[in-house]
Amino acid sequence: MEAALQEKLKGLMASKLSREMRLYLDTCARCGICIEACHAYASMPETRYTAVARAETIRRLFRRYFKAEGRLLPGLGETIELDDAALEKVHETAYTCTGCRRCMTYCPFGIDTQMIQGIAKLLLIGADREPKLLTMLADMSIAKGETIRDTKGAFEQAVRNLEAEVIEKWRGEAGREAIPVGVKGADVLYVALAGKHSIIPAAAIMNAAGEKWSLSYFEAVNFGAFVGNPEKTREISRRIIDEATELGVREVAICECGTAYRVMKHQTGRHPFEVISFVDLMERYLRDGRIRVDRAKLDGSRVTYHDPCQMARNGGVIEEPRRVLRELAGDFVEMRPNRGENWCCGGGGGLVAMGEKDFRMKSARVKAEQVRATGATVLATACENCHTQLSDLNEHYGMGVRVAFLSQLVADALVQA
Ligand code: SF4
Ligand code: SF4
Predict the structure, then answer these.
(1) Cβ–Cβ contacts within 10 Å for residue 313, how many?
(2) CA distances (Å), 277 to each of 15, 134, 316, 347, 382, in order?
(3) If you take atom 4 of ligand 1, which residue's CA is the nearest one?
(4) 256: containing domain
């Protein structure tokens, strides 16, 4: 590796060394409590899939360049040189970890492996070795923000083409748009994903609740966060923050996408509006009697719920989906473990978007077993990544369930007054 590149990478690493991060890198007692917590290790018991082994490459680089003993006596102690071999290792650890933070829940020091992997991902970007597809997708999101004035018309036309399908689920008031866009003073700005599955059920539910809402021109997904690029993450979030501020909305409701929700809710600072998940909104509508659902729609189905890591453990949306499901289903059963301790589906951290499947399937064997043990026929979730991964697992392991978004189940059960 050229000296200039090595210096650049050391600089990037230094930019991540907050007090908290230094504590994480200095503290690990190698007690091994976190080992069994990782779904990848539990499914494929190899040392390289433990949280502690994933962090070790970064710890050795840290000791080598940022601790006195490593700088003075690099030959002694556990250090490694920042070279091509180290970057290969960094790539493997970064993109076999979903950033689910289940290991952190069990670690007595609360060491955040996802945060440590943030260094790994930044080093890969600096060395131009990150998964290019993720960077390309992040750049496309940013470009959409820059060209929105020219593309608004095409977007609005595409939305008009979906309205008939919304009306099939809920007949709204005559003359009222089924998918309103660009509504100044709307109470809720709903930020969807690119597919119509993320728009139609949500639109029907908000119309049924009589909500004054508006669909965002932008997709919720944040590929900047998946690839670990802080600037791109901020830029992608900023488009939505600007839109919400300009419209003067009270709330921004993020669709069923765990990372999008966590980034917008917990990592973008304070705003003149509240950030909520669409699950929160559905639960509120049911609680306030603004929508009613027909439980008969799920008669004969045993339903279970997969807690998306970025919504539940890392986002705090835990009881709301359960309250929604108890309204919907007579036979709702929990997976074990659940809530903040739920097994990751194995598709986060950009793994689903990258398209790789072999590792995703092998490393999530425990998830498939956990679902099967419930005896459920419907597997509900509230995250796009999880939905894709669980659908793939369903096929791969013959789980025999119907994987469904929570919003889809609610929209299909709406009772028209
Ligand atoms: S964050 Fe999740 S995937 Fe990564 S090491 Fe911890 S438990 Fe495993
Ligand atoms: S539980 Fe925490 S301290 Fe123990 S090995 Fe894992 S990361 Fe290190």
Answers:
(1) 22
(2) 31, 24, 10, 20, 10
(3) 97
(4) 133-287
What pLDDT, in 10s, does the model give residues 46-80? 999 999 999 999 999 999 999 988 888 877 778 99
Q: How far is the CA of 96 from the centre of ligand 2 (A)?
A: 18
Q: Are residues 44 and 82 in the same domain?
A: yes
Q: Tell me, in angstroms, the distance from the centre of ligand 2 to residue 104's CA.
A: 8
- Does some domain include residue 332? yes
**CATH number, position 305:** 3.40.50.10700
Name every protein residue with a CB atom under 6 angstroms from any ligand 1 atom: 37-38, 40, 51, 54, 97-103, 113-114, 344
Residue closest by Cα to atom 6 of ligand 2: 34
- Decide which of 114, 130, 146 is a domain's last residue: 130
Q: Are residues 348 and 402 in the same domain?
A: yes
Phi, psi at 66, each rounded to 5°:
-125, 5
In angstroms, how far is CA 199 from the centroid of its own chain? Answer: 18
pLDDT for 148: 86
Pair 228, 267 in one domain: yes
* In-domain check, residue 392: yes
Rounded CA gap, 381 and 391, in Å? 11
Q: What is the pLDDT of residues 120-144, one digit of tens each?
A: 999 999 999 999 999 999 999 999 8
Q: Indicate the top mutation candidate among 103, 262, 389 to test ligand 1's pocket, ranked by most ligand atoms within 8 A of CB.
A: 103
Cα 88 vs. chain centroid, distance in angstroms? 25
- Interior angle at CA 50, CA 38 and CA 91, nearest 5: 105
341 lies in the same domain as 245: no
Tell me how long the chain is: 417
In this structure, are residues 283 and 323 in contact, taking their beta carbons and an 8 Å threshold?
yes
pTM for the model stands at 0.96
Residue 280, in any domain of the structure: yes
Q: pLDDT tens digit string along 335-382?
A: 999 999 999 999 999 999 999 899 999 999 999 999 999 999 999 999
Q: Are residues 277 and 389 in the same domain?
A: no
